[in-house]
Every structure is written in C-alpha cells, then in structure tokens.
Amino acid sequence: MSDQTPLLKPFPDGLAPEQWESILKDHAEVVVLLWTDWCASCGHQRPLFDKLAGEFPNICFVSVNLGKSRWIQVRTQVAGVPTYLFFRNGAQIFRATGDFSAFLLVSKIQEKFLT
C-alpha cells in the first residue's frame, strides 16, 4: 500500500463533457468505472474500485454514474455496466464489462500501466 493520497474522482451525479476531456488531458493514466444506480454488479465494483485507487496513487481513478451521463455511453459505445475503461495519454487502451475480482483488476492495471 502506498503512502500517497489516492487520485479518485467520483461523479455520482454525472460528468460534463468538459470535465471528461480535462481529466483525460490532465492525467497520463486513467482508469474509469462506468456504473448505474440500478446495477447490482456495479454496487459490488464501486468499493473495490475505490480501494484500488489507494493502491495505485499515480493513476487517476474516475467513477461515473452512466445513468446521469448518457453522452459518455454514446461517445465510448458502452453497451453494459459495470464497464472499465483504461486510458493512456487520452487514448483508450483497454475495455472490459462485467463483475471482476480484485485480482483480475490488479492484474490488468499492472499489465496495462506498469509493464
């Protein structure tokens, strides 16, 4: 566990396009969790996502309620939730939809950002 403060940006009330663009521009590495209030799997993923932000303080973790930011669904062509999107220098490098274990998420973060 790192001693640094986690870089976690939760947007339970939605996210404006300008905020999205700013996050991708301002942070070299970004992990996004798209979720909705009605999704049971999303409820399991959100606490795990928050915990992972503390383990990888150099990566920006962004949690967005897709139900209140439908424009993201159109822009990213997301068809289901929960969905994880990984970005490096503004470009999407990974996408996965589903209920994932901590082990799998840590493995993917390490593979995509730390190798």
What is the share of helical residues?
A: 25-40%
Distance between the termini: 19 Å
**Number of structural domains:** 1
Tell me the Rg in angstroms.
13 Å
- The CATH first-level class comes to Alpha Beta
> Count of DSSP E strands?
5
Report the total helices: 4
Please summarize the sheet with the most strands.
Answer: 5 strands, mixed
The side-by-side strand order for the widest beta sheet comes to 1-3-2-4-5
Overall pLDDT metric: 92
Principal-axes shape call = globular
The secondary-structure element order is EHEHEHEEH
Question: What CATH architecture do you see?
Answer: 3-Layer(aba) Sandwich
The low-confidence runs, each spanning 5 or more residues with pLDDT under 50, are none
CATH topology description: Glutaredoxin
Under CATH, the homologous superfamily reads Glutaredoxin
What structural class do you assign from the helix and strand content? alpha/beta
Walkthrough of the structure:
The structure is a single chain. The chain has one domain: 3-Layer(aba) Sandwich (Glutaredoxin). 39% of the residues lie in helices and 26% in strands. It has a 5-stranded mixed beta sheet, covered by helices on one side. The chain is α/β, with parallel strands linked by helices and 115 residues long. It starts with 7 loop residues before the first strand and ends with a helix. It has helices at 17-26, 40-55, 70-76, 102-113, and strands spanning 8-11, 29-35, 60-65, 83-88, 91-97.
